[in-house]
Design goal:
This protein has helices spanning about 15-20, 25-35, and strands at about 10, 50, 55-60, 65-70, 75-85. By secondary structure, it is of the alpha+beta class. The protein has a 5-stranded mixed beta sheet with strand order 1-5-4-3-2.
Length: about 90
């Protein structure tokens, strides 16, 4: 028997949801898929711990998803997402 894999819940901030809604489907869909994968692995290969603030980021093409992981609550909070040239402002 395998130990039951823990699934994290994902919450999008209002800001992240708005940013996602503005994107065309061909860009939004891979981002949504990548966010969904965080449920099983909140710190996937290639994710980066942010230096100047709390949280992590994953890359999806030219886009970045910035998020916090709350292990004690099994929660992932998607803070912000957007194009790499705009995301770190």
């Amino acid at each position: 028997m395998h130990p039951k894999k823990v699934k994290y819940s994902i919450v999008l901030s209002k800001k992240a949801q708005k940013q996602l809604d503005k994107l065309p489907d061909n860009i939004a869909n891979p981002i949504i898929e990548s966010i969904a994968l965080l449920e099983d692995d909140p710190r996937p290969h290639g994710c980066k711990k942010l230096k100047n603030r709390d949280g992590y980021r994953i890359r999806v093409g030219d886009y970045r998803v910035i998020y916090d992981v709350f292990d004690s609550q099994l929660l992932i909070d998607i803070i912000v997402l957007g194009h790499r040239k705009d995301i770190y402002e």
